[in-house]
Amino acid sequence: MNRDPFVVVGGDAAGLSAASKFRREQPDRDVVVFEQGQWVSYAHCGLPYFIEGTVDRLTDLLSLSPTDVAERGIDLRRGHEVVSVSPTERTVTVRSEGERFDQPYSELLVATGARATTRSFDATLDGVFTVHGLDSAAAIDAYLAAPGEYDRNRLGDGPVDRGRVDHNAALAPPERAAIVGGGYVGVEMAEALVARGLDVHLFQRSSHLLPPFGEAVAERVAAHLGERGVAVHTDTPVERLVGDGRIEAIAFDDDRLSVEMAVLGVGIEPNAGLLDGTGVDRGPNGALHVDDYGRTSLPAIYAAGDVATSRHTVMGRSTWMPLGLTANRAGRAVGATVAGDPTPVGDVAGTAVVKAFDLECGRVGLVDGDEATDAGFDPVRETITAESRSGYYPGAADTTVTLVADRGSRRVLGGTIVGSDRAAIRIDTLATALDANLRVDELERLDLAYAPPFSPVWDPILVAAKVLNGRLA
Amino acid sequence: MNRDPFVVVGGDAAGLSAASKFRREQPDRDVVVFEQGQWVSYAHCGLPYFIEGTVDRLTDLLSLSPTDVAERGIDLRRGHEVVSVSPTERTVTVRSEGERFDQPYSELLVATGARATTRSFDATLDGVFTVHGLDSAAAIDAYLAAPGEYDRNRLGDGPVDRGRVDHNAALAPPERAAIVGGGYVGVEMAEALVARGLDVHLFQRSSHLLPPFGEAVAERVAAHLGERGVAVHTDTPVERLVGDGRIEAIAFDDDRLSVEMAVLGVGIEPNAGLLDGTGVDRGPNGALHVDDYGRTSLPAIYAAGDVATSRHTVMGRSTWMPLGLTANRAGRAVGATVAGDPTPVGDVAGTAVVKAFDLECGRVGLVDGDEATDAGFDPVRETITAESRSGYYPGAADTTVTLVADRGSRRVLGGTIVGSDRAAIRIDTLATALDANLRVDELERLDLAYAPPFSPVWDPILVAAKVLNGRLA
């Protein structure tokens, strides 16, 4: 059988998961992966920990080397940009080193990910960074070192942008940094830059850090960041980055703060431009809308990862939630489906966890009351604080759980958790409960683990369920 | 309305949970709790940690003081033994300080717990202990101290058996201890006695420690105990405790080992004798059989906690699983039911976690293949080892997961986990999945938490589900 190859655009989590699974199931068929840049298969979520110094080498963040990819029988072409798609011809047009060529495909997977937005901020100034991609992490790391003192062993032997590193390594190191945006990136970078000895100011335009985690988490995180030396400015939109060539200050609220560094964590957006003009269906934020099997509305074209939508476990509707597991899982499922074994990509519950110094935060499902109301529910919420272990066992720590349920059906809609002792991982109990459509009274009766070193008799999640169920009775 | 009181026999987890909930719902009705001993409401699971020295004072293990109980409006009578029940008269006969009297009840809750068995071992020898009740923990603690050096501040100001403490404190301290039985008590006491500086030998008659946790956990625990200095003797039934007044040796397998201490962890059995002769229905191990609301087969008589059966989440059948959460939850539910709000006691999945030095172990559901087959399933199992965090993040540790599913239906039947990094608490994900009857492919698609400090992209439970589902496909 002479079939055109399965073509994948994008060599990160979704793309390489798909290619790997496809080749494992169909070792006689070809798969070609076009990656615009030089890096493939890296752990985006690890970037702050490299900058912090917790991870020794940039290349420690690579999951697969190009050699690993080749050994899987994947035809990986780095430095190849796919510039257009012809769904009718079933070809993509590829540009590389000034050449262009057409590549036919039997099936196409668009796995082009997302990019950090910079809004109207001038991100061309020296000292201004987004945290997206290994080259940005390398640039930040170099910028933090005194001129002539940057240890290039930190970079490992990957295809790093040496010019950008050299440029940043030559500049005087910053003493004070502003972080613009109090989401995941902002909170993780606050921890990282404090660890690197900087005076860190975190600016959030709304009243709460980590908005998807709700008020109870936000308050504990803000207090904890303060204890650890971060100046937290909530309700403070940053208006402008000030500087001439290099950042000198940030302007906000008729005031300004002198800084030598600014990190922008103001959001991301899907890299969905490749299918512009094709009439493809789109979902929230312009992401490529896909069905349960990752199929776009165009024949033989799939999308997976940060560029694609997912179906929400609780709401049932299409949503855009770019997260690591979603990308890996959807990529793998598309690889299986294209190989002939139709496999659902799975719904997303919006499960997310984040570390803020010693605090662990988790969230899942519908946490925001307005969002729950918009989705047709009548949300009731309860927040409790309980101990993480038996009170007499050393290490027991206050764990705050918020639980949201629908008043009429008692169905659990979502929840959050925050605490310093094994708090984050407990969100998986709620994620499983959401997936299974459990009611609050069913949640209350779950037979969860108890042993003094790990959990009290009534796990904090059970306590929250007990109290919320009492209110619903 | 002149109604007889709600009478509870037993002042520990189940009994006091029931009494507290009942009074909260029915503040105008009376509840009387008869407790044979002097202690009430203590954390049985904390005893090894007191002996270890991790918990400073014996009384730290009390959940409620008699004063707390009184403030809840509960008529608590310590030193009152209920010696018989007349289901037709609706009275119990009580003995206290040589007196006997009859107490009428409107409803009766039997919450008499369980006791440690000693099999045919001579537990009257000095230096031989079971670990059951605060007085046994105090006696062990005193026995470990050199004569004249026992710090009685360790005991707090509770109603401890001072005579027993004094007797043990006067004896020469042991240098070597044998622990008979490799279940929870045995493993936890091995850790405790090593911490107290003893040469510890752990004897298990079967081939695996912690039998309910299956082979994969047993092997890692045995290896780890060995690394921490415990001599583990599996397949070695202890035949006899040797001594004249005081333990001198244990005899096994045509051999003997000189010891100055023996801890018996050879099982427990329900204290169900109170209803002997009433014809009450019984379940496994002679436990009192109860329905979904904790009702025995006798009118107006309930049972809860370690003396009662529970319905198994996976098998649906009556089982006897004496565990802490079960007792608290069932007691509370019976209290609500008797107060007029019928509340199910909840099924048990057999969720259990145990700490063995730095290893954390968890189990839930059907783990043993024969048990699963007996219950009508066709069990398939898979064991994987995966990292607990992203590999590049410090602290990532091998986590071993065993997953058992039914071949035909793909339903998840049970599983185990063992590892050193937040392993135990992850069993709650499986406990929730079992309660919700999830299939392996549904488990594989759960949206679980991912962040480098807490979990890898594919949580070890997802890895196990992925591999097992691949085998079932």
Word description of this protein:
- The structure is a homodimer.
- With about 475 residues, chain A is α/β, with parallel strands linked by helices.
- Chain A has 3 domains: about 5-35 and about 80-115 and about 270-340, FAD/NAD(P)-binding domain, CATH 3.50.50; about 130-265, FAD/NAD(P)-binding domain; about 360-470, 3-Layer(bba) Sandwich (FAD/NAD(P)-binding domain).
- Chain A has helices at about 15-25, 45-50, 65-70, 135-145, 160-170, 185-195, 215-225, 325-340, 370-375, 425-435, 440-445, 460-470, and strands at about 5-10, 30-35, 75-80, 80-85, 90-95, 100-105, 105-110, 115, 130, 175-180, 200-205, 230-235, 240-245, 245-250, 255-260, 260-265, 270, 300-305, 310, 320, 350-355, 360-365, 380-385, 400-405, 410-420.
- The first copy, chain A, has a 5-stranded parallel beta sheet. A 5-stranded parallel beta sheet of chain A has the order 9-16-10-11-12.
- In chain A, helix 1 (about 15-25) runs parallel beside helix 8 (about 325-340) and helix 4 packs parallel to helix 5.
- The longest helix of chain A is centred in the last third of the chain and has 15 residues, at about 325-340.
- Chain A starts with 5 loop residues before the first strand and ends with a helix.
- The interface between A and B is large, with 65 and 65 residues.
